[in-house]
Amino acid sequence: MLKELIALRHELHQLAELSGQEKQTAERIKRELALTSPDSLLDSVGGHGLMATFDSGRPGPHLLFRADIDALPIPEANDITYRSQTDGVSHKCGHDGHATMLIGLAKRLQKEPMASGRCTLLFQPAEETGEGAKAVLADDRFKKQTFDQAFALHNIPGYAKGKILCRSGSFNPSVISCIIRLQGQTAHAAQPEQGINPDLAVASLITKINQLSNHDLHSENYLKATTICIALGERDYGISASRAEVHYTIRCLSAAKLDTAISQIKKLTAQISTRHQLKQSIEWLHEFTSCHNHESAVHSIKEVCRQLSYEYQEMEHPFEWGEDFGLFTSSIPGAMFGLGAGLHTPALHQADYDFPDDVIEHGVNLFYGLAQAHCK
Questions:
Q1: Does 187 share its domain with 61?
Q2: Same domain as 160, residue 295
Q3: What φ, ψ does residue 250 adopt, rounded to 5°?
Q4: CA distance readout (Å), 46 to 131, 153, 335
Q5: CA 104 – CA 7 distance, rounded (Å)
Q6: For residue 40, how many other CB atoms are within 10 A of its CB?
Q7: Residues 62, 113: one domain?
């Protein structure tokens, strides 16, 4: 089976599609899922999502296993036979591998059915923008379901291949991005005092927002504000600038702390804009809810690792990247865990990253072990 899964992963890699555009990817996954004869197979869930349910026909828990399927706007840098066929788009977060492992679970469930309960496999679109989980949760067909546990994984470069990383509580932070827009008045570059240039306001905003930061992941007040992009004026050297944009990504360990940070940024922006006689607005986008790992689900992951003789590492603190699986664990007990992708594997979102095929089996085995543990 592993050889087939690797070939499939390479196919999905070539089909790389951006968030919300995963049509070909979903079609290919659907064809493969159909071969596993699930009791129910739904498409167009929350966009291009898919849900395959395997039902034992006997009473028991209903488990949700989730994988993401979208790619990133990063050109393929690797010289590989299965290069992405979509210009400027490639799987630099490993979602092709995540989807492949979930298909591997479907194949195991077909060959070795559960003794009780049901397992639903969700192939979720648009994770990278934070919109996919929202859309799935809003889908009436998903809302009709009741789940007892939910599980997901993410491959993690920088750790030994196959090592499992997890912790109870916060697995990763709540994250949101914003665009702060400032509007003043143009003037001749020789007489900037006759206009309102937002340059000093931008400088003040950057300083004040950076002062909010606390990069200590051990602190409940952890807050990281990352400046993403700054645009000020135009390339016309006779005109003093009148408008500016500052783009930020803000992350905190909980939704409550993120709400506080949002309020602080709104207040700072209003104060600085008033001081400099500027009009201002803030657009909030790409929101990710912190993934809260439930203790019972983490215990299950530890126990399955013990049974499989997989190395397990208790994480000292949460990862710093955002992930929209947190929306599922907000309402369903569950957990996300990390799967080591190799000590020397390039980091996620780097142009030379490629999902390591030799950890596919680890993900399939752990997912199936969790299904067996709950659906005895």
A1: no
A2: yes
A3: -120, 135
A4: 9, 20, 21
A5: 12
A6: 12
A7: yes
Return the pLDDT at 375.
81
**Closest listed residue to residue 229, CA positions, set 204, 246, 210:** 246
Asked if residues 235 and 277 have their Cβ atoms less than 8 Å apart, the reply is: no
Q: For position 137, which CATH number holds?
A: 3.40.630.10
Q: What angle is formed at CA 11 by the lines to CA 10 and CA 15, rounded to 5 degrees? A: 115
Answer yes or no: do 178 and 229 share one domain. yes
Q: Do residues 12 and 65 both lie within one domain? A: yes
Residue, of 30 and 286, whose pLDDT is higher: 30
Distance set, CA 334 to CA 168, 175, 294 (Å):
10, 20, 5
- Per the structure, how many domains does the chain have? 2
Query: For residue 322, what are the CA distances in angstroms to 7, 51, 73, 276?
Result: 29, 23, 17, 34
> Please, is 191 exposed, middle or buried when counting C-beta atoms within 10 Å of its C-beta (0-12, 13-18, 19+)?
exposed
DSSP 320: S
Residue ranges in 118-212 assigned as alpha helix (H): 132-138, 140-143, 199-211
- The pair of structure tokens assigned to 50 is 């898919």
Would you state the structure tokens that stand for residue 297, as one six-digit string? 């689900």
The answer to whether residues 154 and 224 belong to one domain is: no
Q: Please say which residue of 259, 287, 315 terminates a domain.
A: 287
Q: Are 340 and 163 in contact (CB under 8 A)?
A: yes
Last residue of one domain, picked from the residues 287, 305, 335: 287
- Whether pLDDT at 376 is above 80: no
| Average pLDDT of span 98-122 | 97
Segments forming the whole domain that contains residue 196: 174-287
DSSP string, 56-113: -SSS--EEEEEEE---BS----S--TT--SSTT-B-SS-HHHHHHHHHHHHHHHHHS-
- Please, how many CA atoms are within 13 Å of residue 307, restricted to the half-sphere of its CB? 14
3-state SS string over 258-275? Answer: HHHHHHHHHHHHHHHHHH
Q: How much is the pTM?
A: 0.91
Residue 179 shares a structural domain with residue 206: yes
Residue 201 and residue 151 share a domain: no
Question: Does the pLDDT at position 102 exceed 80?
Answer: yes
Asked if the model's pLDDT at residue 101 lies above 90, the reply is yes
